[in-house]
Amino acid sequence: MKIVSFVTQKGGTGKSSLAVSLAVAAAESGLKAVLIDIDPQSTAEEWYKRRTAEAPAVHSISWANLSSRLYRLRQQGYDLVIVDTPGAESHAASEAMKEAHFCLLPVRPSVADIEASAPTVRHLNENAKPFAFVLNQCPTGGRTSRTANARMTLQLLGGLCDPTVAHRSDHVDALAAGLGVTEFSPYGKAADEIRAVLQWLTARLRRLDATEIADDEGGAIPLSAMS
Ligand SMILES: Nc1ncnc2c1ncn2[C@@H]1O[C@H](COP(=O)(O)OP(=O)(O)OP(=O)(O)O)[C@@H](O)[C@H]1O
Ligand SMILES: [Mg+2]
């Protein structure tokens, strides 16, 4: 079982939106996926209440119970746990980073978002925790140089999820409908981007599994479903 936490203390960068759509895409790909919401704002929990589909399950819990919940999920044979955290420096974010095999840091292509990620990056580096930025809400029109500049900066700052996610209304509408973007508009560009992020992430987890993660449980994600 692999644990991926969405962290950054900047609010509104897209942690919850990416977490729910990624969890849906993971479930669609055949992974036994669960989303844990430890943000008191409860965006993922509220999203789940609007759903009719049961998978992926959403567990809304206190950060203090994260470790014990992960233990139980491991016993239940989950492949992938995605953790959504508050957009502020908090015990919740620290605990999510500690428990994660890998962290994703959504940032918009803006200097303010990139600067605001510095304390999170410092914390991750100090704890030798693998991570990558995900560029989210990228402009789709002519201002692609802003995205290109952000890509370069984020690569230098520690690594970037290669597929980027554009600013698309599917994300807003899917969240409101209790759906992932791959359910809301399966053939849309937002859906393609989320599937590309999932594919990148699972490939990265597979690489970590081979080289960096000493996973006591020995439970590698059955990534055959992804390739
Ligand atoms: N790629 C995107 N395209 C368009 N809108 C987006 C995208 N990603 C997120 N949003 C919108 O941006 C807003 C903030 O997103 P979200 O709630 O996911 O951020 P967050 O990082 O979880 O915020 P917080 O730190 O408050 O928990 C929401 O209205 C969401 O619908
Ligand atoms: Mg959120």
TrEMBL record:
Residues 5-141 form the CobQ/CobB/MinD/ParA nucleotide binding domain. InterPro entries: CobQ/CobB/MinD/ParA_Nub-bd_dom, DNA_Partitioning_ATPase, P-loop_NTPase. Coiled coil: none annotated. This is AAA family ATPase. It comes from the Bacteria.
